[in-house]
UniProtKB/TrEMBL annotation:
GO BP terms in the entry: RNA modification
Protein name: DYW domain-containing protein
Lineage, uppermost ranks: Eukaryota, Viridiplantae, Streptophyta, Embryophyta, Tracheophyta
Keywords: Repeat
Pfam families per record: DYW_deaminase, E_motif, PPR, PPR_1, PPR_2
Matching Gene3D superfamilies: Tetratricopeptide repeat domain
Family membership: Belongs to the PPR family. PCMP-H subfamily.
Source species: Rubroshorea leprosula
Keyword set includes Repeat: yes
PROSITE patterns for the chain: PPR (PS51375)
InterPro entries listed in its UniProt record: DYW_dom, E_motif, PPR_At4g14850-like_plant, PPR_rpt, TPR-like_helical_dom_sf
PANTHER family: PENTATRICOPEPTIDE REPEAT-CONTAINING PROTEIN
Top-level taxonomic group: Eukaryota
Length: 643
DNA sequence: TTAGGGTTAG
């Protein structure tokens, strides 16, 4: 019997797929061991916990087992608690209380409380707490710790505190749990107090403080703790990098990465994915390439998450070819994140057909899309003008893949109709949504009204926005631009006045360009300096050449005021991306691709301008705007003028 | 205790 047990265990150890699990199950049935609690328990554990997609099979196994013991109940609860449907863990737990001969133990409570925490159900959490109390397990170290975590996740720091104070001698894990719970509930001061009270602090406790401060945006406090730490590990460093990156302080995030290397600490895979995501957000292509080289050399290139980050980085830095190369190189190891990143990357570049083709390949290879994959394919359709395909994917998502649409999916659909000029359809769709439309939905529609010049609907939509997000400067500017295009100058003035009255400031546009090792940024309306003077001089020269050789005429519709034509020209010609591209032409070597990152969307005039430069100067220009890429070459753009 | 894919707009 012992030999058989050993054999079964070693079989399970090497078993990685559901198919292999089924074979082991079949062999247990032939020998009659499938009803033995030992074998059944181990098999169940493997299905419910170890293998990622075998939870349904675990449930079937469980249901066919005549008298499941506590271990089997706990295993199924554990599997469900980490799944997409943690509520099932609660149902299994209730079933256990009703039917099982043995009562739930500390493990049952630890797992089921984790489930309540995972879907943030305070109501279920409290009921489970009462049950734990009834069984005398509420002060058990494991159960108590999960109770604290659960209350923290559910935002109830008071209850977490009450549980904590009941424990006579909390260990360090429990202290960490109460500090985390405070941070989770947004109680930074409480976390600080608890941290000060801790009798013993280990490295983990300090790391929790770093992460908590950083997530709360308290970067100075995080820095202080970091400096005071006598011992720092790789987690401390990557927490700092991620913390600064999350708060938009990319330079400092990079700084910590440099410092980490200087002190001789080794970057782990989390650090690398974090730094890559900073590159992606900044559009820092050259640095991304250096990191890629480092990853290859240091043996991280087989890790799925690192590859996913590389795909995303290359995509967001405009090199979809390199992204594709990384993607193709991971044949059996693509995760749903890999597929989604690649589809989104293609979509951002305006390669709608290729995105759809890849989605098909994914389906053919038996991979099920998740909600985010569906958002990406809908995004691809809306940005390529594929209305029918977009609608078909939306239906397929619900009917075939059983995915409930979220606000993001609805957003894509409103964009799909709106961008294509079907404004009425877009409006009706927004009104009929299963969830209440948020500001983004209405803003999408306002953007569509701007593209297609529909003043009446724009005013109606702006009213909705004024209820949901009244101080958003972009909405005011957009409405003002819509009026300006329609020549309604009185209305333009009214919007302008209300912006001044409410102290709403227009976000200035900026563009960045890297030349050699430096990043230069150009901000609309900033004071002239040496760099901008150089850019302006070059820009004047370029404009002249484009007028003569390319027949360029400024498009000046999208300017706020009713001002003289000449002044409008001046305003449009100052757009930051024009200055950045002029600077690039002045400073970069011939033949080098000009890469620009911009914070807002590119305007129609700048778009025409870039197309002409690419033709007249024989250059390749890449502009990453707020939401996508424009690759200009030989007089045309990859977005096919649809954006 | 750290990370990684998604909707809009200025």
């Amino acid at each position: 019997m012992n030999n058989r047990r050993q054999h079964c265990l070693s079989m399970l150890r090497i078993c990685k797929t559901l198919k292999a699990i089924k074979q082991i199950h079949a062999s247990l049935v032939t020998t009659g061991h499938h009803t033995d609690p030992f074998f059944a328990g181990k098999l169940l554990l493997h299905c419910a916990v170890t293998i990622s997609d075998a939870l349904d099979y675990a449930r079937t196994l469980f249901l066919h087992f005549p008298n499941p013991d506590v271990f089997m109940y706990n295993t199924l609860i554990r599997g469900f608690s980490e799944s997409g449907t943690p509520q099932n863990a609660i149902f299994t737990f209730m079933d256990m209380c009703r039917k099982s001969v043995d009562p739930p133990d500390s493990f049952s409570f630890a797992f089921v409380l984790k489930a309540a925490a995972n879907y943030r159900s305070l109501k279920d959490g409290i009921q489970l707490h009462c049950q734990a109390l009834r069984h005398g397990l509420d002060t058990h170290l494991f159960v108590g710790t999960t109770l604290i975590s659960m209350y923290g996740e559910c935002g109830s720091v008071q209850f977490a505190g009450k549980v904590f104070e009941e424990i006579r001698q909390p260990n360090v894990v429990m202290w960490n749990a109460i500090v985390t719970a405070c941070f989770r509930s947004g109680d930074v001061k409480g976390a600080q107090k608890m941290f000060d009270r801790m009798p013993v602090k280990d490295l983990t406790s300090s790391n929790i403080m770093l992460a908590g401060y950083a997530k709360a945006g308290e970067l100075e406090l995080a820095k202080k703790v970091f400096l005071e730490m006598s011992l720092k590990d790789d987690v401390s460093w990557s927490t700092m990098i991620a913390g600064f990156a999350h708060n938009g302080c990319f330079d400092e995030a990079f700084g910590y990465f440099g410092e980490l290397q200087r002190v001789g600490m080794k970057a782990n895979m989390v650090t690398l994915t974090t730094v890559l995501s900073v590159c992606a957000q900044m559009g820092a292509f050259d640095f991304g390439k250096i990191l890629h080289g480092f990853i290859e050399k240091s043996g991280f290139s087989w890790i799925i998450s690192v590859n996913n980050a590389l795909i995303d980085t290359y995509s967001k830095c405009g090199n979809v070819g390199m992204a594709r190369l990384v993607f193709e190189r991971m044949p059996d190891k693509k995760s749903i994140v890999s597929w989604t990143s690649m589809i989104a990357g293609l979509a951002m570049q305006g390669h709608g057909e290729q995105a759809i083709q890849l989605f098909k390949e994914m389906e053919d290879s038996g991979i099920r899309p998740d909600g985010i994959t569906c958002t990406s394919i809908l995004y691809a359709c809306s940005h390529a003008g594929f209305i029918e395909q977009g609608c078909a994917y939306f239906s397929k998502m619900m009917d075939v893949y059983n995915i409930e649409p979220t606000i993001e999916h609805y957003g894509c659909m409103v964009d799909l109709y709106g961008r294509a000029g079907k404004l009425q359809k877009a409006f009706e769709f927004a009104c009929k949504m299963q969830i209440p439309p948020n500001d983004i939905i209405w803003r999408t529609l306002l953007g569509a009204c701007s593209i297609h010049g529909n003043v009446e609907l724009a005013e109606h939509v702006k009213d909705k926005l004024s209820e949901l997000d009244p101080n958003n400067s972009g909405d005011h500017v957009l409405l003002s631009n819509i009026y300006a295009v329609a020549g309604k100058w009185k209305d333009v003035a009214t919007v302008r006045r209300s912006m001044t009255d409410q102290k709403i400031k227009k976000t200035p546009g900026w563009s960045m360009i890297q030349v050699d090792k430096f990043i230069y940024s150009f901000v609309a309306g900033e004071k002239p300096n040496e760099i901008t003077k150089e850019a302006f001089d070059k820009l004047r020269e370029i404009m002249l050449r484009l007028r003569v050789e390319g027949g360029y005429v400024l498009e000046v519709v999208s300017v706020l005021h009713d001002i003289e034509e000449e002044e409008k020209e001046d305003s449009v010609s100052k757009h930051s991306e024009k200055l950045a591209v002029a600077f690039g032409i002045a400073r970069l070597c011939k033949g080098k691709v000009i890469r620009i990152v911009k914070n807002l969307r590119i305007c129609r005039d700048c778009h025409t301008f870039m197309k002409l430069i690419s033709k007249v100067y024989g250059l390749e220009i890449m502009v990453r705007d707020r939401s996508r890429f424009h690759s200009f070459s030989n007089g045309s753009c990859s977005c096919k003028d649809y954006w």
